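Supplementary notes for students who missed Thursday's class. We covered one full example, reproduced here. Read the sequence, then the structure, then the short commentary at the end.
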Amino acid sequence: MAEIANLKSIFDLGEFVGDLTIEDDASSDDVSLEGLQQELEECKNDDVVANILSKGTKLREYTKGVENNLRQVELDSIQDYIKESDNLVSLHDQIRECDGILSQMETLLSGFQAEIGSISSDIKILQEKSMDMGLKLKNRKVAESKLAKFVEDIIVPPRMVDIIVDGEVNDEFLRTLEILSKKVKFIEVDPMAKTSKALKDVQPELEKLRQKAVSKVFEFIVQKLYALRKPKTNIQILQQSVLLKYKYVISFLKEHGKEVYQEVRAAYIDTMNKVLSAHFRAYIQALEKLQLDIATSTDLIGVEARSMSLFSSRRETLKNRSAVYALGDRINILKEIDQPALIPHIAEASSAKYPYEVLFRSLHKLLMDTATSEYLFCDDFFGEESIFFDIFAGPFAVIDEHLNAILPNCYDAIGLMLMILITHQHQVNISLWPRFKMVFDLHLSSLRNANVKMLWEDDIHPHYVMRRYAEFTASLIQLNVEHGDGQLELNLERLRMAVDDLLVKLAKMFPKPKQQIGFLINNYDVAIAVLKEAGSDGGKIQMHFEESLKSNTALFVEELLLEHFSDLIKFVKTRASEDPSSPSDRAVTIAEVEPLVKDFANRWKAAIELMHKDVITSFSNFLCGMDILRAALTQLLLYYTRLSDCIKRIPGGSVLNKDLVSISSIMYEIRKYSRTF
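Structure (token representation):
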């Protein structure tokens, strides 16, 4: 602290200034000391100033010394500059050269800048052109799409002309007929087609084709209708197997040949009216030969009994005169309402005779079956119900004529009452069967037109649609056991085919074959179970599902084994049957089978356990799953037995005996799982 105080006393500028001696100078009068104190205060921290003041050096002397020093430094600098003059000149020249080069670069870069600006402008123009071209391309694609569709709809391909003009009426002709119909409709309703120049060229050709097609299908249908008039023709088979295949022809005539359609319609009505009338007249005549007279006008309670023919001039001796009054076995006719109609020539061959109610029931049964079949055909083929009544005007007249001849001479009260009951039940059936058929067809259409993507669920267990189908089918089969309605059996077969198709489509939605097969197995199994639970004999439908279950089970077993033992199975199928001892490059060797043997030995039990878990989780029916597992294990045993036999035939194959799993061990494992069943 003392030293700091001494320094403060040394640097006390006021005291130094007070002690300074200023020499007289001629110019001293011109010097002003104003502001000196302030400058000294500002410089008190400068080391040089502090040193001067501390030594008491006179300012003028010090200033002269500084000037001398500066002059000497200047002279030294000049000498240094003179020594480096050559270098400086060289540096100057280099700078000038660099300046020139830089000037050139500036000019070049300026040019580049101008060119880049021009390129940028070009790019912008190209971009605008590209956008414009893209828009034009998009518009052209839209126009091309519409134009292509327009051309496709309006053009008349030569192949279509050849088929319509020269081709036979077959499936290809029908497809071509549909295309022609679409084209004719297109030029009639499409506003673009109506205003196009192409219409003038195409319309006359389409009109010629339409006329040719109408004429051709008219001749074809009329020929088929004439076939109905041939004696002993099975009308229903001809309708179902021939005419219905060409029902589109009728739709085409309705739309594009209305006059010709009316001719076809009239021809069919006339043909069927005459054919059915003739059939019923012949059938009635045949039935009259089988008639057993029961009562006459004198067979009354208070009148003496006598034997007279009621329905014809022929007389029959009754073994049991009480049949006139007692019902007896005649009531059984009410239990046979839906039995097939009598076949007259078979009954006549056996010399059998029947009360009139039996003949009456057969006549009504035949009428009902024929009417039902014809009604359904007319609705499907012509799409009209009214045509049915026109056709049956003739058959109804024949039956009315017969009844008008029989009933006035009928005195069998019990027979008449039975006929009333028969008529009542038949009337109900005639009313209900078309409705049932319509509802049944709705179920059928729901399967055929089902949206597979909407119905599909990522679950291989039984689908609810299959359970619905199985319960519905089982119910109808059970109801039909006592009646044996052939028409219902045909419809059930159609329903079965539809659900089969739907199941296959749903199965294909699964990504893996094993899942697809497992799904089918679960659904076939539930159908069989429901049919059996109904207590009915499933017949052909149940047999079909059982066969499908069997075939798919074999496929699933193979997929399940391939998942765990693919190398072994591949070897057994391709190489195990070869003779290892034969001198051949393809002879089976130990090196080839050793990996298979060791791999099987290491993991066969674990693989079987995995298969067991897979089956348990995959199948809803435990017994079905266990049957599949049992089949898989049995098949695995067969594959491994073939592998073992192959190894025995390999020279030196005994070295692998230590790694071979014994057949008894595998059998034990199979029995162990069998005990859990």
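Commentary. The two ends are 111 Å apart (CA to CA). Confidence is low (pLDDT under 50) at residues 1-29, 301-322. If anything here is unclear, bring it to office hours.
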